[in-house]
UniProtKB/TrEMBL annotation:
Residue ranges annotated for the Methyltransferase domain, each copy included: 66-155
Provenance organism: Trinickia violacea
Keywords annotated in UniProt: Methyltransferase, Transferase
Name this polypeptide is given: Methyltransferase domain-containing protein
Entry keyword annotation includes Transferase: yes
Domain of life the protein comes from: Bacteria
Amino acid sequence: MNHPNPSATRNYPTVDYDEHARTCAPGDFWAQVKRTVGGKVVSEEHVDMIMQAIRRHLAIEPKDIVLDLACGNGALSARLFRACSSLVGVDISSYMIDIANQHFAAPPQFTFAASGAAEYVCAETMPERFTKVMCYASFSYLSEQEAQTTLQTLHSRFVNVDRVFIGNVPDGERAAAFYAPRIPEPGELTDPRARIGIWRTRAEFAALAAGAGWDTEFGTMPEGYFSGYYRYDVVLHRRSAPNASREQANPGPVQ
């Protein structure tokens, strides 16, 4: 999970995933990354839905080398190990990376490193080795500048990446439904330190991606997924035509 430095006083809930993870039991992996509903860890059924979406949208093949940005403690990343050739997970929280290395790493193929997303993609010495990139439920916690830098650098330096999956993005058009009955405070929907991070409409996300050279394809989780009513998924492809954007209907769960 990534966070910029604190700024002005906020009149709304904020989150620091590193601090939160340190309050959880060392083996309570889903609680550490706040994959919870009403304070309770989500069911295995919902975790399976997440993994189905990742596999479907990334179209992972056995030869792929995957980069998982803002990977948290690696619990989700580890479920992809059998599907790909290699995976590198990075997260700004050194504590969660310690957990990932202790419980999930299997070097040299499957490794984890402490780094911010933008910092890592700019510093990676062999970006051409990667073929797929993902960032699940964390992109909204990147600052606007971090988000731009990450997408632009993935496009310019990671030349063999043909598909980027950014999952569980808070939908700016559904914020009112999520926060009801209260009204979001000024600045809350555009603050990466807020509880949900930055909310973006699909049009806003498509514009952000297009500015970095990516086409966008949008999807939604199957009906019944716990946060599906206010979030969407994004798949980025290298641009094939100016200002192209494809809307993908919900294909339902993968069997």
